[in-house]
C-alpha cells in the first residue's frame, strides 16, 4: 500500500527484496519509495538499496543516532560487524564491560536493536542500521572493519561456533584461520 502511494511499478521479486532489506520498517519503505521515484531503473535501485543510501543515512543519522550519546554511537559502530552478537562478543569488540546493559537498553528503547527469538541473549541490528554503521566505520577508519571481523572470528571460534566464525574469518580475510 505504501509503495502504491508512490506509484511504484515494482514486480513481486523486487517488492520482496525491498521488504527483506527494510524488514518492513515503514520509514525505510517510504524513504526507498521517495528515492526510487527519482531513479530511472527501480529494479536496479532496489538491488542496491542499503543503509548508506543518502535519504536512509540522513534519516538514521538525524532521527536515531543523533539522539544517542556519542559513546553509544561508537559502541554501535564497532559492534555492527557480526550479523548477530551476544553481550560478551559486544564487550570484546567494544572494550566495554557494560555491553550487555547497552544492548539491553537499546533493545528496550526500541532503537532498531532486536533480541530475536529465544536463542539465549543474541542481538542483531536492523539491517539498514547495520549497513549504515559499517559504511560509516569504513569511512572513518578503512581497516577497522577487517580488524573487528578478525576479533569476532576468534571469539566465535573459541565459543565453538564454527559457522559464524568462518564467515567472520572470511570477511576479515584471515586465510590462515579460514
Please tell me about this protein's structure.
The chain is mainly alpha-helical. It contains eleven helices and two strands, in the order ααααααααββααα. A two-stranded antiparallel ribbon has the order 1-2. α6 (70-79) packs across α7 (87-94) and α10 runs antiparallel to α11. The longest helix has 15 residues, at 144-158. The mean pLDDT is 84.
Q: Outline, from the CA principal axes?
A: globular
User: Biggest sheet: strands side by side, in what order?
Assistant: 1-2
Q: What does the radius of gyration come to?
A: 17 Å
Q: Please summarize the sheet with the most strands.
A: 2 strands, antiparallel
Intertermini distance: 45 Å
Amino acid at each position: 500500500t505504501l509503495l502504491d502511494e508512490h506509484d511504484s511499478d515494482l514486480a513481486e521479486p523486487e517488492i520482496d527484496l525491498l521488504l527483506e532489506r527494510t524488514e518492513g520498517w515503514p520509514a525505510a519503505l517510504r524513504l526507498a519509495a521517495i528515492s526510487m521515484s527519482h531513479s530511472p531503473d527501480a529494479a536496479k535501485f532496489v538491488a542496491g538499496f542499503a543503509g548508506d543510501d543518502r535519504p536512509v543515512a540522513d534519516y538514521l543519522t538525524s532521527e536515531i543516532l543523533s539522539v544517542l550519546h556519542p559513546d553509544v554511537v561508537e559502541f554501535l559502530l564497532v559492534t555492527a560487524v557480526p550479523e548477530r552478537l551476544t553481550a560478551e562478543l559486544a564487550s570484546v569488540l567494544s572494550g566495554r564491560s557494560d555491553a550487555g546493559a547497552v544492548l539491553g537498553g537499546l533493545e528496550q528503547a526500541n532503537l532498531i536493536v532486536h533480541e530475536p527469538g529465544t536463542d539465549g541473549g543474541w542481538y542483531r541490528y536492523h539491517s539498514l542500521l547495520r549497513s549504515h554503521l559499517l559504511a560509516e566505520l569504513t569511512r572513518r577508519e578503512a581497516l577497522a572493519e577487517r580488524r573487528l571481523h578478525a576479533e569476532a572470528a576468534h571469539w566465535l571460534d573459541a565459543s565453538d561456533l564454527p559457522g559464524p566464525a568462518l564467515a567472520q574469518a572470511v570477511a576479515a580475510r584471515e586465510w590462515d584461520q579460514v
